[in-house]
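Subject: design request, 123 residues
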């Protein structure tokens, strides 16, 4: 199961409160892409689908599709602010990050070619 830190929850509570009544939660997914093969994706959603796992953190509801759930098991999502900006950070103990750190693989290693050609992810 994916976990949100208190900082991530507080940030998302603010975002959801400003988003209006049509937004019911946050979708966190793993999609193909990036130099390592997989990337995280986040987005506001009107509702969960029938097959989603719904995880509640106070007023924050997180929707995870069945394909992403095993890849997000054990992941901790935090919201960090620093000199380079602010954003959500994913800590995945099962992931190997390649090159730019924007994508990852699970159960494998990064090849030199993948480390030098970096994709981007949205989160």
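Subject: RE: design request

Done. Sequence follows.
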């Amino acid at each position: 199961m994916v976990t949100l830190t208190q900082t991530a929850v507080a940030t998302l509570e603010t975002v959801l409160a400003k988003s209006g009544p049509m937004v019911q939660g946050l979708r966190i997914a793993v999609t193909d892409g990036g130099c390592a093969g997989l990337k995280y994706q986040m987005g506001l959603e009107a509702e969960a689908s029938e097959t989603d796992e719904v995880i509640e953190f106070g007023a924050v509801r997180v929707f995870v599709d069945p394909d992403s759930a095993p890849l997000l098991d054990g992941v901790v999502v935090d919201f960090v602010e620093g000199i380079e900006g602010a954003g959500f950070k994913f800590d995945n103990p099962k992931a190997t990050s390649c090159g730019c750190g924007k994508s990852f693989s699970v159960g494998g290693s990064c090849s030199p070619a993948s480390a030098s050609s970096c994709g981007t992810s949205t989160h």
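The two ends are 18 Å apart (CA to CA).
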